[in-house]
User: Fold this.
Amino acid sequence: MMIKNRLIILILLLLASCSGDRCIDADDFGHAKFIVSSRYDAQELDGQVGDNQVAPWLNSDFRINGRPLTVSVRGWEYGVDVNTVSEVSAWCPWFGTSKEANKLSDICVRLTECMFADDTMCSTGPDAAIMNAPCLLKKGVGLYTLIAEKESDPNLTKQTQIDPLGIVFHVGEKTPDYAMYEVDKNGNLRETGGRVYHFVSEEEKLQYMGSKVYFKIADKFYDDNNGQYKVIVKSGISRVSPDPVTYAVKLVKDYIFGTEGRQGVVKDLYLGVVNNPGYKSAVSAIITLYIMLTGLSYLMGNIKMTQTELIVRVTKIAIVSALLNSQYSWSFFNDYLFVYFVGGADQILNIIMEAGATGPGAPGIMAMMIAPQTFSKLISMLFVDWLGLPYIILFFIAMCLVIIIFVQSAVIYLSALIAISLLLIMAPIFICFLLFEFTKSFFENWLKQLLSYAVQPIILFTGLIFISMLIRHELYASLGFSVCRYNFLTMSTMNPVDSTTSSVFDAKTQDSLNGLTDSIFSWWFPQQMIGTNFSRELKSIPIPIDHFENEVLLGDNSQSNFCEAYGCIGQRYPDLPFLDPVKDIRRLTQFWSGKFVQLDGLFLIFAAIYLLHKFNALTVKAAQFLTGTEMNSVKLNKIGNEAVSDLMRNASMVTNPIKSQIQSMPKRALNLALGKERVQAISDKLTSMTPSYLIDQARVKSLKKEAFAPTANKAILKAVTAKTGLTQESVNKTAIADYKNALKKELLKDIPTTLPQAKREKIAEKSATILAKKDLSKTRDEFSQIKFGKNFVDLPNAEKIKVNRVVNNIELNALAKDAAQARKFREAYVDAYSNLSNKGVGVVGKHVKPVRVFQKLKDDIRILEESKKPKK
Assistant:
């Protein structure tokens, strides 16, 4: 009973929807979101009253990373969305009060969307040319984005609020060559507002790299405004969303090397060495000895004091003398030497990681895999396909392996940082060895070791990012679809007059609950199971992934074929934006047919993880080879492996009790969790993967061939004739092949002749194989899609006539009829074989009486049991 209660609680926790949007867009793997209110309080407006009010810019805390800045605005429709803070994304410049800063007033909520004269939002007059005021402003109309110049404050004065330094653009301005789409709460695709800003030149990009992003709804009088915009920034900003491993690494690194407000352990120990009186005396003595030996060697003629030699020796003395000045020693060596081994390596790593973020979501693959949006899309597969549960389990296994590999990589990285810190602490000692020739090798080896440990993280993360890109692309392709939450036990009331439903909670309660208003429980499902099916209509949209193509670009990239994420406009399906309509037709077809679970992609993820694991072992050796330090005795990869082994041993102490509990869970708990029918369906599917099932399938295939062969079993043929009235002689044995060839010939007429003949033949063969299995009169949609790319009902009359001409073709229908008879005869032969085998007749010992009697007895028992089932 206790286990049953725990299981029920666990299921309720999983089903409970705590917060967040009702639907997640196809390209959302962790977009940055920001709310911009249309109303400001008196303090924010600095006491301004009357017309010509100027509002401050809202700091989003986002910073530009140089990629195309993609800003989208959530849509809002009366009757579909609710007038709550969590859903409203529209504003009204009329009838507002101080209580409605983030939602619409009762008057505005039913207003229509604003229309502008000549579709011109920004007119030359003092006011916008709105034709149907009062009305609602939607899709980003009135919302402005500011990319501020570095070190500038747009809210410094009233004048800077009016005319700030930087780039300002209107998010709601209509774009003629592309549109943005989203999924509403009912799972239906709709157009929304948004804008992609691409820097016009490389100089402008560098100028604004790292600049802050601000937002503001522009108006002249804010006191009666109501509503808000829900802003989504899809690309173009640097976000800090570290995974646990990255966060732990940052903590250790900040402790060792310090931050802007606190110096690290390395600096403390370094200054402790150079400030030691004994150390200063030793360095002074070494410099004095070096000068004396230089002068003595010159007088004795042992050295030739050329200008170059003099400059070298003076430089050595100056470098070592810098150690004596404890006030400037750290600043000098850190700015001119140490920074290349720490800051330089970090800068290269940041460049590599930015390059690896080829689309939406967190830059790190682990942070992307554990993002809530990724989890929601993953668990939506649970009830879509019987392979959903195995897919989810395998995905979590892959995620655990990625975590283990990243822990191992983090240990290697931290070991390298600690080695660098130790070498930097010993820098005051080894720098002194620079003076004399017989100690110079110590200084050179110290420098090589520094270089080796600095190169190791670069090689390590280059491999990590390369393999992570493969995993990232596979996640985009496999999980790049929209999902929505489906509610169970809906808490709403129905109006008997107009049959509309409304929540049992008032608006204030809905705002406080933020997502728990419609129901207590919910689960994520693909959008196509909740709302409309896949659109299958190409739209011009910003393509959300880095790629190469020859399409229209938004910036200077038009000189090449490379497109950054959201930087190119191309023809894509809005509900599957990551898949290319031509290159990814196989995956598109799978999605369109309802096959969301694609195990081949998961296999690629596991292959990438394996390569990632193998690459970690080569990192240290590669760095040692490049820097000539193969004799380095510190095996960091071994340290990483041992650390992971210890971690796994400790983890097993925690997981073993859990594992025993799971193994002891009774079967009734599984039936309670999934339902008996679901468990039985999964069991049947797993049975279909057994070797015996595969052997049966092969046997059925051979029986279909045997049905038309001269060696066909006569007893089976007799049973087929008795059941169907067909004989082997009356059936056209080549009818199926003839019908398929006729379909192939018809399909070849519509395949472009620009394609290679072999490819045309392959496409026609594949399509004909599918069509040959269907009734010709029911293939109008298939022929319409192949010929004109639309369904039959959407075709004009002229094109419908062309399709009907094919479907009603007399010769083709005659072949289809013969093929149907042949298929019927073939299937009847297989069924008769099965029935006669169960009764001891046919292939299984027709003339062996004991066998026949035994099988007849089994068949009688089976028939008797089946007859009792209706009575039960």
In short: The chain has 29 helices and 20 strands. The longest strand covers residues 226-235. The chain has a mean pLDDT of 76.
